[in-house]
Write a structure and sequence with these properties.
This protein folds into two domains: about 40 residues; about 50 residues, no CATH class. About 35% of the residues lie in helices and about 15% in strands. The chain has two helices and three strands. It has a three-stranded antiparallel β-sheet, with no helix packed on it. Strand 1 and strand 2 form a beta hairpin.
Length: about 110
């Protein structure tokens, strides 16, 4: 991983584009737009406009009073998912973690 900050990376990308890369790639369709877009995303990250997404997964499907409950693998918060045998929420309402991480031990 680079030691550059996102802002330094944006500045370096813009500098290289202006002074070195332009000669060879200026005629490629969309080149200038792609470099500008990449630099703008790096600048947005540097400004704090994007936050790192943290991942967890639902574990421990249990049936309680006719409703399925799952537990967050990060904070251990348990919540009901109604009659659904699979989780219906894509994030934990307690810690906010995204539930996109795979649970290799899930039984189905």
């Amino acid at each position: 991983m680079s030691d550059l900050t996102p802002l330094e990376a944006a500045e370096m990308l813009e500098f290289l584009s202006r002074h070195f890369l332009v000669k060879d790639y200026i005629n490629l369709p969309g080149y200038k737009e792609a470099v500008g877009y990449a630099a703008s995303l790096l600048r947005a990250i540097a400004a704090g406009e994007y936050k790192r997404v943290k991942h967890a997964h639902w574990t421990g499907r249990t049936l309680v009073n006719g409703e399925y409950h799952f537990t967050c693998s990060h904070c251990q918060y348990g919540c009901s998912h109604g009659k659904s045998k699979t989780p219906i929420w894509d994030y934990c309402p307690n810690c906010g973690y995204s539930m996109e991480e795979k649970d290799d031990g899930h039984d189905g």
